[in-house]
Amino acid sequence: MLRKLTFSVLIFVLSGGVRAGRYEALLQRLDRAADMWDRDSLINVHDEVYEYYQLEEENEARVLLGIADFWLSSYYWNSDRDSSKVYLEEFVEVVEEVPEEELTSDDLAFLGYCYNTLIPLRGFTSAPSLGKKSSDAFKRARAKGPDNPRVYLLRGISVYRRPKSFGGGAGKALPLLNRSLELCNDDKGPVKWGKRVALVHKALALKDLGREDEALSVLKSAVAEFPDFGWANSLLARWSERR
Fold it and tell me: How far apart are CA 58 and CA 66, in angstroms?
């Protein structure tokens, strides 16, 4: 009996290690695809993550899907809003089917982001409903994970993109992005992600506020820490040319 129990424990530990390695490998591939800003690479990793989630339906796989949908919806944002909408709606549909007691702080943070980003895509008549859903999702995300950096990151991006007349703008987003960066240093999440995105959005917010020297400094720190991050490198080159 003891030998059977020991063997079962060993199998459990090994399977957990395999899953953790799988998540890490997929996250690294997502980061590389985002660094290159390559559509086909992003789609390929997304499809693999989605298929994996359909098989496992585990929290960590759902976080990876949130990251993949974040990148693809961002990729298409300026060129193909219909495709951008597809990936945002995908994550909403997945999370809305998960029982409340199984939802994680990351689930709710990405959900709040998706609701907010969908407002101009579903039409501004949807703003009252989606705005309330977004606010509620972020509140629940913070309650479940008060030290989760992605809660503050995704809320910060949402606030940054929201018009000032609706309570948004760079000034209100900046404290949220700063808090996200503080928490990134002690990220306890199963899938650690977001620091490079927070740094770029902090730089964008500072530039919008007219604090260009600070913005450039933040962007340089992003490139120093994440030298392959194409978005940061592109912005740094463009901003440096204009000085």
Answer: 13
Q: Which residues of 34-61 are buried (b: 16+ CB within 10 A; e: fewer)?
A: bbeeeeebbeebbeebbebbeeeeebbb
Q: How far apart are the C-alpha atoms of 235 and 241, rounded to whole Å?
A: 10
| Residue 32: inside a domain | no
Query: Whole domain around residue 76: which residue ranges?
Result: 46-145
Q: Phi/psi of residue 162, each to 5°?
A: -75, 140
> For residue 154, what are its two tokens?
């995704």
**195: its two tokens:** 């620091």
Question: Tens digit of pLDDT for each residue in 58-111?
Answer: 788 999 999 999 999 999 998 999 999 999 999 999 999 999 999 999 999 999
| pLDDT tens, position by position, 179-189 | 999 999 899 88
**Which tokens in the block code for residue 112?**
């709040």
Pair 55, 131 in one domain? yes
Residue 153 lies in a domain: yes
Domain boundary among 98, 122, 145: 145
SS3 call for 165: helix
Residue 166 lies in a domain: yes
38 closest CA partner among 222, 199, 230 = 230
Give yes or no for a contact between 95 and 140, defined as CB atoms under 8 angstroms apart. Answer: no
CA distance 242 to 154: 29
